[in-house]
Amino acid sequence: MADKKTIIVFSGDMDKVMASLIIANGAAAMGSEVTMFFTFWGLNTLRKAQKIKVKKDFMEKMFGWMMPRGAEKLGLSKMNFGGIGAKMMKSIMKKKNVNTLPELIESAQMMGVKMIACTMSMDVMGIKEEEIIDGVEFAGVASYLGEADEANVNLFI
Amino acid sequence: MAEINLNCKGLQCPGPIMQVFKAVKEAQAGDVINVKVTDRGFSKDIKAWCKKTGNELIELNETDTEITAKILKK
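YS: structure for the whole thing
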């Protein structure tokens, strides 16, 4: 039986999310079953880049405007400088042939990495199911714990 | 027993190891996969990967510019 790894992606920082996805892809390539739980700011990684029409109250709309819409829009945890740092990082990554975040997400999904969006944080942050990219499951803490129990590596990023 | 050649030059982590994974998955037991990589981390990575997945690393060569590995699918 394949062993399991679980990763909680709490952060919505581009660099941290990238690290989590590289680990997830690598673990899948080592033959592990991988589950990633996206919660709080990490959820922004899974937002569709395009604007989706959904009903939201005032606060939810505010959150929606302020938070990055999708992996391509995430900023760096350090030296972001209002997005300039992230742009610089992307141009270096391109030059060095490093996969972009959207590519890493696609490849993780193709490798069978299970991605779960935390429904409680979705509610808190006003993110609706329609705004989340395809192939993502929706669940809560018990699902994470159930998987973590069987896993030999659990990361919180 | 087939030989499969993989060119992963220019690919960065986790690219090469994922290409190896895919190639080995599609190969038959007894097939040999030859891989060329420029990512310096690959030498250690392929050892760890083979140990973990139970495939055999028959050969590993490292020059200043590239790493070549021969993997036997078990």
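YS: worth flagging: Chain A touches chain B through 13 residues (CB under 8 Å).
IM: good catch. Also Chain A has a mean pLDDT of 95.
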